[in-house]
Design brief:
Layout lengths: L9 E5 L6 H6 L4 E7 H17 L3 E7 L5 H13 L4 E6 L1 H14 L2 E6 L11 E5 L5 E6 L6 E5 H4 L4 H12 L1 H11 L11 H27 L4 H21 L3 H9 L10 H16 L3 H14 L18 H11 L12 H13 L2
Parallel strand pairs: 1-8, 2-3, 2-4, 4-5, 5-8
Antiparallel strand pairs: 6-7
Helix pairs in contact: 3-4, 6-8, 6-9, 6-11, 7-8, 7-9, 8-9, 10-11, 10-13, 11-12, 11-14, 13-14
Length: 359
């Protein structure tokens, strides 16, 4: 039975890490395309361009805004070809990163990821999540290998809005449970092979780190000064979480995103917020007892994670959309069957209603 483990070529984290960007990019080429959204350029353009200039690199900046669609990816790939870029640098949040990954897939350029928020684990993965203009997930594209370098400057991460940081916690906390279910049910990981045992160890370490340090990290974020709890939590939400999901696989918590994306009123929810909600649905389907689920929802309450559809932005009766969420999830999510307990569309529907009924 074949098992495969994948990871970024290098991971760099700490305050001031972006100062290394030029010397790192120069290892892979002399011509660079920088993909960054408008907000990132407005605040961090000098931080990005100064080390590139110091390294005497030729660089072109391609502003990114909006959704990571096939058209947006094609436009960035055209910009990369026009610049004859050997290296693509993605600076920003998940959508900009995924769009830059898409451009690297089409052009074969080397890839350096510089996240400016810690809202999910996309920086380390080789996946590019493509949506349509209505924020409905359409496809998942894959790089031949993971990004060459992930460069995480925690002095930048700590300046981002708290909601993004909390979303990263929500995306990461599911990995212990999803990886275990994928492993035990015989599912494959994102390299098309059985999960290696080390992937479960990483998923456990991610979960334990969040339980022990996430609340302290939030306190550090509010002070605006990175400390040990903050550094550990960022490492968990970006590196450990990313390694865990690609190598251990996913289950219900991420599958639910397919269904949630079909509800227009939920289009403003962040990825990690949706995953956190999906984990509650998964725990119900796993048959976890009420005390266990209560411990999880208590952690959610302390860290600001969503516990109901209304917390994700749905204003109406959850029963009115639960069937649609369940149906789309069952029809479209490729890892919805990575669960040891029996699962079907009806059970998904009932599990959503059970989460909405939790005290």
């Amino acid at each position: 039975m074949i098992r495969i483990f994948g990871a970024p070529g290098r991971y760099v984290q700490g305050p001031g890490a972006i100062e290394r960007l030029g010397t790192i990019a120069r290892e892979f080429g002399q011509r660079v395309l920088v993909v960054a959204d408008a907000a990132v350029l407005a605040r961090y353009r000098d931080h990005i361009e100064a080390p590139l200039s110091a390294a005497e690199l030729a660089f072109t900046v391609a502003p990114f805004s909006g959704e990571c669609t096939a058209a947006a990816i094609d436009a960035l790939a055209a910009a990369a070809r026009a610049a004859d870029a050997e290296v693509v640098i993605a600076a920003g949040g998940g959508k900009a990163i995924d769009a830059a990954k898409g451009a690297a897939i089409l052009t074969g350029a080397r890839l350096v990821i510089v996240p400016t928020i810690a809202s999910n684990d996309s920086p380390t993965s080789r996946l590019s999540i493509v949506y349509d203009d209505e924020h409905v997930l359409r496809e998942v594209r894959r790089l031949p290998s993971n990004p060459d370098v992930v460069l995480v400057d925690t002095s930048i991460i700590i300046a981002a809005p708290e909601r993004f940081f909390v979303s990263g916690i929500g995306d990461a906390i599911s990995k212990r449970f999803e990886g275990a279910q994928c492993f035990e049910s015989g599912g494959d990981n994102f390299y098309g092979a059985r999960p290696p045992w080390i992937a479960l160890t990483l998923a456990d370490a991610c979960f334990d780190t969040l339980l022990n340090h996430a609340e302290g990290a939030l306190a550090a974020l509010r002070r605006g000064v990175p400390d040990d709890a903050f550094e550990r939590t960022v490492e968990a939400t970006i590196l450990l979480s990313g390694l865990a999901f690609e190598n251990a696989g996913l289950s219900i918590a991420h599958s639910i995103i397919r269904g949630l994306s079909a509800i227009p009123a939920l289009s403003g929810a962040l990825h990690g917020e949706e995953v956190a909600y999906g984990l509650l649905v998964q725990l119900v389907l796993e048959g976890r007892d009420a005390a266990f689920i209560a411990n999880v929802t208590d952690f959610y309450a302390r860290t600001g994670l969503p516990r109901k559809l209304r917390d994700l932005g749905f204003p109406g009766d959850p029963a009115s959309v639960a069937p649609r969420i369940a149906a789309v999830t069952w029809e479209r999510a490729p890892y919805v069957r990575n669960l040891v307990a029996p699962v079907d569309e009806g059970r998904l529907h009932r599990a959503i209603l059970a989460v909405e009924a939790l005290a």
